[in-house]
């Protein structure tokens, strides 16, 4: 074996390799100028030369030539958009030629759409109105809803849509009801379910006036003296447990029954009196009042669960603002009788009924806005632009928040001009329209 080893060493020396690697006979590794290496270096790439890479998107796709059974097996992946581009092209060309595969591909695509999870959508608040208008233009209802009942119909439907996906935690989310008593803001803590119970109880005033069951007692009764606050307290006390999601069904059924009943009764039923205990409203105004409160409390609920909520449709919002503006003279007179507002300063006695007197111009800006002249000295006085002593400008939604007791008169961002005392009295009169 020693002889073989000498022969191997001689061969390595002859071929230019030493014990430590290749050399040139002088113990050094071969250089670049000594000829090509035994293991060649890689060729220079496109990046090394600075040339641009070819654009793969501009390269024409060539459909694969596949058998029918293979193309049919790819239909599931094609429906899921999981095929390679060449496979997609081959499948789609095949679908234009094979009716059986085209039918199966259509069914698979429909199945994929059913498997996709629906994403939550914040619908345009006017969508329901526009859809209904489009339907009614083509086919008028056999029994139409009176125009004065449509705001209530729309707002209860919007609130019901907000509630439909609530879980237990949302139904028990804390809500604070706010309103004004005298010149002080007061509040009451409840839950989302408690708010719906409140709406159920107060909407029951309209139900009772229409001869429907009273949700507080469960039996028909004649309108009586209980106020909205006392009815709500009675309903809460009668519940064995705090209200839960179960209150949604009776509230929604009652709202449907109210709209259905006034629709069958016709427009003439709008003059039917509805008692609120210490005052009355005709049915057409009571329905608008209930729509206003439904929207306001829907906003309270949306705030409690941190969800956006849009104002009513412009024409409905305008009707709500108009009702509040028309109620201001009576509210101002009530505050004056209670010593909470400045007495009339025109003469030593009130302005005779039908005679022009001092007036305030209420300008409501934005969607649903307009202008109203408010008589200051007597509800029976005639508002007159010639006797205008003050001018107040408010955003429409902010005015509604003021009338709902959610914004104090001092905090209302009002543009004011003229008699400051008259302006203060009207703003506080607007806040006094609120109640629990």
From TrEMBL:
The keyword Nucleus appears for this protein: no
Pfam families linked to this entry = zf-HC2 (PF13490)
State the residue spans of region: Disordered: 1-52
Q: From start to end residue, where is composition biased (Basic and acidic residues)?
A: 1-16
Segments forming domain Putative zinc-finger:
72-102
Query: What Gene3D superfamilies does the annotation carry?
Result: Anti-sigma factor, zinc-finger domain (1.10.10.1320), dinb family like domain (1.20.120.450)
Q: Which UniProt keywords apply?
A: Transcription, Transcription regulation
Annotated membrane-spanning segments are: none
Name of the protein in question: MDMPI N domain containing protein
Species name? Streptomyces sp. SID12501
């Amino acid at each position: 074996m020693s002889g073989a080893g000498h022969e191997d060493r001689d061969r390595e020396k002859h071929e230019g390799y030493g014990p430590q690697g290749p050399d040139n006979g002088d113990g050094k590794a071969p250089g670049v100028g000594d000829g090509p290496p035994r293991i060649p270096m890689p060729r220079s790439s496109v990046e090394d030369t600075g040339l641009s890479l070819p654009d793969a998107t501009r390269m024409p796709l060539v459909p694969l030539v596949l058998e029918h059974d293979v193309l049919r097996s790819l239909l599931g992946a094609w429906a899921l958009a999981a095929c390679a581009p060449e496979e997609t092209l081959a499948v789609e060309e095949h679908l234009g030629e094979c009716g059986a595969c085209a039918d199966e591909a259509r069914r698979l695509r429909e199945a994929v759409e059913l498997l996709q999870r629906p994403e939550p959508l914040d619908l345009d608040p006017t969508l329901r109105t526009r859809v209904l208008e489009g339907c009614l233009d083509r086919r008028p209802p056999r029994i139409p809803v009176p125009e004065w009942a449509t705001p209530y119909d729309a707002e209860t439907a919007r609130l019901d849509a907000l509630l439909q996906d609530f879980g237990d935690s949302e139904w028990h989310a804390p809500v604070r009801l706010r309103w004004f008593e005298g010149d002080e803001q007061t509040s009451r803590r409840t839950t989302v379910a408690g708010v719906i119970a409140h709406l159920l109880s107060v909407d029951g005033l309209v139900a009772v006036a229409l001869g429907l069951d009273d949700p507080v007692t469960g039996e028909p009764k004649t309108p009586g003296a209980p106020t909205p606050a006392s009815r709500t307290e009675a309903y809460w006390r009668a519940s064995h447990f705090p209200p839960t999601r179960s209150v949604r069904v009776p509230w929604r059924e009652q709202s449907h029954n109210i709209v259905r009943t006034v629709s069958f009764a016709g427009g003439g039923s709008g003059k039917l009196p509805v008692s609120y205990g210490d005052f009355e409203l005709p049915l057409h105004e009571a329905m608008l009042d209930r729509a206003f409160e439904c929207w306001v409390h829907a906003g309270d609920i949306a705030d409690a669960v941190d969800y956006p909520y849009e104002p009513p449709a412009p024409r409905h919002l305008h009707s709500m603002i108009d009702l509040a503006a028309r109620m201001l003279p009576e509210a101002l007179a009530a505050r004056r009788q209670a010593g909470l507002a400045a007495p009339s300063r025109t003469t030593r006695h009130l302005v005779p009924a039908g005679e022009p007197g001092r007036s305030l111009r209420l300008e409501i800006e934005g969607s649903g806005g307009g202008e109203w002249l408010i008589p200051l000295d007597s509800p029976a006085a005639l508002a007159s632009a010639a006797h205008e002593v003050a001018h107040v400008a408010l955003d429409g939604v902010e005015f509604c928040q003021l009338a709902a007791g959610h914004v104090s008169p001092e905090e209302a961002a009002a543009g004011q001009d003229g008699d400051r005392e008259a302006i203060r009295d009207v703003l506080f009169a607007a806040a006094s329209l609120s109640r629990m």
